[in-house]
């Protein structure tokens, strides 16, 4: 089974592009990733990594019940059948070596808690929600 590896980046406020911030740019892994020459460095995937202007997030390999790609830091709603609806944030846990659904009552894993893709719906992400709170 092949899992698609792709990334998106949340663009924080950029000093040189004031109108292009607080938004996502997708498929950043496909940007020019050649040698470190000064003419092409702005087009390279590496510019997103270890850069305070971006938050890089990985696709977790699943789509929700509506066909929307699920990424790290997405807010989702889980239909847990016997437990009802739960709101959660997708995070990566180093100690478990996997993406999990983080809720106020604990974490749920895709494998151990048998969460079906048909029970997941992306409802937002942590960055846009944070912006809404500040308004």
Keywords, please?
135 residues; five-stranded antiparallel β-sheet; mainly beta; 7% helix; SH3 type barrels; four-stranded antiparallel β-sheet; 1 helix
Account of the protein in words:
This protein is mainly β. The protein has a single domain, classed as Roll (SH3 type barrels), CATH 2.30.30. The chain is built from one helix and nine strands, in the order E-E-E-E-E-E-E-E-E-H. The strands form two sheets. It has a five-stranded antiparallel beta sheet with strand order 8-7-6-5-9. Strands 2-1-3-4 form a four-stranded antiparallel beta sheet, with no helix packed on it. Strand 6 and strand 7 (98-103) form a beta hairpin.
Number of helices: 1
Q: Compute the gyration radius: what is it?
A: 17 Å
Write the CATH fold name.
SH3 type barrels
Report the major sheet. 5 strands, antiparallel
Distance between the termini: 44 Å
Please mark out the parts with pLDDT under 50 across 5 or more consecutive residues, or reply none.
Answer: none
- Encode the helix/strand succession as letters: EEEEEEEEEH
Strand order of the largest sheet: 8-7-6-5-9
- DSSP summary, beta strand count: 9
Approximately what portion of the residues adopt beta-strand conformation? 35-45%
- The overall number of domains is 1
Q: Kindly state the mean pLDDT as a whole number? A: 80
Give the name of the CATH architecture: Roll
């Amino acid at each position: 089974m092949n899992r698609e590896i792709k990334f998106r980046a949340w663009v924080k406020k950029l000093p040189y592009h004031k109108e292009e911030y607080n938004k996502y740019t997708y498929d950043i892994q496909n940007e020019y990733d050649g040698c470190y020459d000064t003419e092409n460095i702005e087009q390279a995937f590496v510019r997103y990594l270890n850069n305070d202007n971006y938050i890089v997030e990985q696709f977790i390999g699943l789509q929700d019940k509506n066909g929307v790609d699920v990424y790290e830091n997405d807010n989702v709603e889980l239909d847990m059948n016997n437990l009802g609806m739960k709101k959660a944030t997708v995070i990566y846990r180093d100690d478990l070596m996997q993406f999990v659904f983080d809720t106020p009552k604990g974490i749920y894993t895709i494998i151990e808690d048998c969460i079906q893709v048909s029970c997941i719906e992306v409802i937002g992400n942590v960055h846009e929600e944070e912006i809404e709170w500040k308004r």
